[in-house]
Structures are given as C-alpha cells and as structure tokens.
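Quick one, T. Sequence first:
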Amino acid sequence: MASHIKVDIFLLITLGLLRAGLGVFMYVFLALVIRNHQSLSGSFRRHIFKLVLAIVLLAVVAPQLYALRSEMRESQDINIDMSAAEIVVGRLVGRLSSIGDTAFIFQNTDQFRSDVRVLDPLYFQRQMLAPVLGVWVIPIDIPERLLINVHGGSLFDVSFMTGVPGNLTMAWLIHPLIALINAISMLLMIWLSFFFANKLDLPYPTYKVLFAWCLWSKAMHRFDRRICISNTMIRFYERQFPGLSFDLAYNFRSDHGEKYSLPNPEAINWIQKQRSGNRIVLLYAGSLSSRKNTNALLDAVLSSNDLSLMICGEGPERIAMSQKVELRSPENQVFFAGHVNNVKSFLNQCDMLVLPSHAEGLPLVVLEAASLGIPSLMSNLAIHRELASKGFGETFNRHSFFDLRHKALLLKADRTLDSDTRRVNLWKAQFSPLAGFGQYEKIFDYAK
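Structure tokens:
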C-alpha cells in the first residue's frame, strides 16, 4: 500500500504541474483518498502530532505560498529565477487560486450582477456532461471567462478559477434557485466520485460493466493509435470497433539479471517430499480469489494423487483454502508460501507454473516462467491458447478441470533441456525488454 501512495502522490504532483483542471485534480484526489483510506487513517492516528503540526505550518506559510504564486503569474520573463522546488510548490498552490478569486467576486458583486446575465442558467450542468457527451455541450460563456474579463486579462495568457464558492455566488446572482440546483449538482458529483471509486471493483455487476464500457467506447474513437498486447485482444476489439485499426505490442518481462536464491528450508523440504512421492509439483503465483479460480484448482489437485501444489500469494480465499487442505490432505499435498518477493526462486524448484484464471490480459508470470525455461499449465482462455500455441505450455478446462492431470503429465514428460531452451529463446525473441521496446519503436516510427 505504501508504494501505491507514492505513485498516487506522483500522479497528483504531475496533474498540478500540468495545470490540469481543478475538477480533474479533485476527482483524482478523492478517488485516491478512498482507495488508500485505511492506510491514511491508520497513519493519521499513529502520527496525530505531526498532522496537527502540518496544519499549523500550512496556515503560517500560506501567505508566502500565495506570494510565490502571484510572482509566477505576474512575471513576463520565461526564465524566471526560481529553484525547482519553488516552481513545484508554486504550481501546486495554484490549485488554491479560486479562494482569492472568489473573494474578488464577493467584493465586486455589482459589476458581476450585470455580467452574469450572459451565462446559461444550466452552464454548470453542461460542463458536468462534457466528458460524456463531448466538448460541444460546454457553453461559451462560463464564470471563469467573466472573471478573466473583469480582471482585464486574456484568456490565452492568464488563468483564473472561480471554484465552488465563486460558482455558487455567480449562480445566486442569476437566481437563488439556480444556485440551489448547482449546489445539488456539486454534491451529486462528489457522491458519484466516492460511489464509483469505492464500488467499481470485481466481481463486476452488469450495470457497472455497461457504464464502464460506454465511457471506454467513446474514448476509443478519440485515440490516434490503439495498441493491443496480444492478437487475442486485437480480435476482440476489431469485432467491437470494425472501423478502427489496432497495433500489436506484446507485454514483455525483464529477468532483471537477478541471482535466484533458494526458497526457505521448509519449502525445500516440502518439495523433496513431493518428489519422493512421485508427484508433479505445480506452482501458482498470484491472488487467492474467485477471479483467479484458485479454490477450484485446489479441489482438482486434492483429487489427484499425482499432483501437488505450492501457492505463492495471499487473498480473500486463503482461510477457506487452508481449512480445506487441513481436512482433505493428510499427506500435505499443498504448501502455502504466502507472499514472496522473488517468485522465480520458487519457480526454479517446481515442475511447472499453473494458472487457472477466469480472466487475464497477458499474464506476466507466464513470461517470467518462460525466461527460466519452465512451462505453464493454463486455463483455456483465448489469451492462454495463444500463448500455448507459441510453445509456452498447455491449456486445460477451467470449469471442470477434467484434463488437468493429463495435461500436467504431458508437460512433465515433454520437459527436456531442448524444450526448456526453446522457451527461453522464445522469451528472448518476443517477450524480453529488447524485443518489447523494439515493437513500440516500429509502431511509432511507422506513425511518423
């Protein structure tokens, strides 16, 4: 979660530096706060003194920050004499510029009272619908434009924001009812942001899929180039969007030049015990969830004396799976390794990777296994069939698992030095970083 928060902070800083619209900035901020609310609330409780100190310091340094923002706005010299840190802070504090602009509206209500007559009464609602319906619905006259005119600035060289208070103030000057409608609309937008950020998650109910697909379909037509990570994905999108073209650039995976240490002694002892029992050692790496179909995989393994399973990962099904193993596997066919930082050290000790998922894009763990020469036993998804046809392994029926044991025996019998070398060479030729970046270079050279 800590890494997620670092990425989120980087995203917010990038939006601030790019001067993204305040609405975009706030929606992203809200979504990220919701996603990390547990970590943030726990951090606040652990560091309450630091939080209070930060709030006090913000109040103290706010005037200096606003002065810095004003200096950046008013300077006509492109080579402004500021450090990189000052530029970052000055840009970000520009997010708060609506506070001073709102005060200006309050102080000059008589002037704005006549100007607001040019505003469309539903200007705010039309701006709300623009991301879905297109820019054509955005009204020409908006509160920000009125503010620029009153300031005597130019739309092209000065930026002013009215913010929520300023929007509501101008709406009130049109009519109190318009202000009420705008206030309700803003609250609705905030609620929708929380709702979808918190609820849009697997498993996907139909209405969520339809909503997301409508947005995605509209966006698809606006891209200059559309890059798919597999032929399976290209076929899918060509059926959905017959008039559009798509480029292929496979996912790729680096081996990082790592030296792979052995797993812990407990895992090594378990693997040796399975081999002494002539069992094929399968390895699963990933989340333990319904989407990954891990519970059904466990049932299939426990139903065969020829198979054993090492599980690297955690997830919501972990407890139920552990209880099932305790009840049904007196010979300890299953080993829970938990979360591991270097799955390749475990892959190196097992016979093959197993991937029983109901849905995948292009699974990177299969590429990791191939970089070691290890075959993969994959569910019969279209993308897995594509990888199997290239020589990465075999597929099995992900619903009944009736052929899992047979396919595992086939892969085990086929494992030779030559077959492992072929998989490594395939990874180098099509799925290594050198090959992967080369695909994008060809696409964008062609685009030029």
